[in-house]
Design goal:
Length: 189
């Protein structure tokens, strides 16, 4: 059995630690905890780190396709490993939740998130495990684009760090229990 954990973000230094890259940040924390490193995989257009947890292979995947085309990286990885959307967990940012807040869901619309829209379109389903990490709404008339592509300010930074750590905890809990409903009960809210 293989678990695919995908963190969404955009490649390149200018996007590092931006709000839209919170999925990458969660996977970086998890890779550090599991003492594994990401390697560039040109075939799957992703940075991938792999390990075994209780005899089960776990792949941490950061697509390098840019957010709007995330599904173009996710679908081939699932296909290559003989997996379906049931074996997938996606970690990403959510504008409509307070900074650092978590929401775990197994299905739903993209809610305006282009990375989720791309994955749903490529996999032809809206049913897959997700962890949304709140990044809050734009402040002081800032545009949505500038907000998601910006970094957290000092007032939100601590809540963001707590949310990233809790999301990594949730992924770890899911990997160990193999039970998404139980994970949701433990970490939602």
């Amino acid at each position: 059995m293989v678990k695919i954990i995908v963190g969404l973000g955009n490649p390149g230094d200018k996007y590092t630690h931006t709000k839209h890259n919170i999925g990458f940040d969660v996977l970086d924390v998890l890779a550090d905890r599991l003492d594994i490193s990401f390697k560039r995989d040109k075939t799957f257009i992703s940075d991938i780190a792999s390990t075994f947890v209780d005899g089960e292979k776990v792949l941490l995947v950061k697509p390098l396709t840019f957010m709007n085309d995330s599904g173009k990286a996710v679908k081939p990885i699932l296909s290559y490993n003989g997996l379906t959307a049931d074996d997938l967990m996606v970690v990403y940012d959510d504008l409509d939740m307070a900074v650092g807040k978590l929401r775990l869901r197994q299905k739903g619309s993209a809610g305006g998130h282009n990375g989720i829209k791309s994955i749903s379109e490529q996999l032809n389903t809206q049913v897959f495990n997700r962890i949304k990490v709140g990044i809050g709404r734009p402040k002081h008339g800032m545009s949505v684009v500038n907000h998601v592509l910006g970094r957290f300010d000092k007032t939100d930074n601590e809540d963001a760090e707590i949310g990233i750590a809790r999301a990594a905890d949730a992924v770890q809990y899911f990997i160990e229990t193999n039970n998404f409903n139980q994970t949701g009960n433990q970490f939602n809210g």
